[in-house]
Amino acid sequence: MPALVRTALLSTGAAASALALALSGAAPAAALPYPDRDLVNKSDGGRLALYADSTAEGATAITLRDPVYRYRTEAWHGERTVVNGTVHFTLRNKAADKCLQPATAEAARKTRIVVRSCDGSRLQSWALHPERVGGADTGWWMWRPSVNKDVAMTLDRYNDGAWATLHLDTAYPSNDRLWKLGGNDTPWQ
């Protein structure tokens, strides 16, 4: 087979593969980094952090509302991928060097949110669903564990008014289930 025909067939095959990938809705698994971020809850403006600023295995995730609390565990590194049109995030706590996940593999309603050593599992991957108003994305997202998209991360119990614990509950776009990722300690524009 002449070299020119062989090259044309290879190019056509590569183009067909790329077209098939695009038409399937699948996206390349290239991860985009989001370093040094705050994850803020829409309902109360609380910043995602770890209880008592702990960096231990299994430390409980909370939101801090009181600006007096300046926890080193409120900074996160995110990694974003898109799989079959769905945005997925893995959040690694900057101070603890551990990833956000449900406390149990079932990831059912009432399951607490904790950090554990990062292992790349689906339990540490969060499928994001955007809030839409009038057909437009608002920038607020529902964070659902990839292993169970019927539940979402939400506020659980308000404590002394300065912080709240988190758990999983039914996935619907109420303000307590919506979160926005922004620069750590950076005003939003």
Describe this structure in words.
- A hairpin with a 2-residue loop joins strand 8 and strand 9.
- The termini are far apart.
- This protein has one helix and twelve strands.
- 12% of the residues lie in helices and 43% in strands.
- Strands 1-4-5-8-9-12 form a six-stranded antiparallel β-barrel. Strands 2-3-11-10 form a four-stranded antiparallel sheet, with no helix packed on it.
- The protein has 189 residues and is mainly beta.
- Residues 1-28 have low confidence and may be disordered.
- The protein is globular and about 40 Å long.
Secondary structure elements and pairings:
Blueprint: H1 3-24, E1 32-41, E2 47-50, E3 61-64, E4 76-83, E5 86-93, E6 99-102, E7 113-116, E8 126-133, E9 136-145, E10 151-158, E11 163-170, E12 178-183
Antiparallel strand pairs: 1-4, 1-12, 2-3, 3-11, 4-5, 5-8, 6-7, 8-9, 9-12, 10-11
The residue fraction in helices comes out at 10-25%
Spatial strand sequence of the major β-sheet? 1-4-5-8-9-12
Radius of gyration over C-alpha positions, nearest whole angstrom: 20 Å
Principal-axes geometry comes out as globular
Spatial gap, N to C terminus: 60 Å
Approximately how much beta-strand content do the residues carry? 35-45%
Listing every helix as H and every strand as E from the N terminus to the C terminus, the arrangement reads HEEEEEEEEEEEE
Number of E strands: 12
Mean model confidence by pLDDT: 85
Q: What is the tally of helical segments?
A: 1
Low-confidence stretches: 1-28
What structural category do the secondary elements indicate?
A: mainly beta
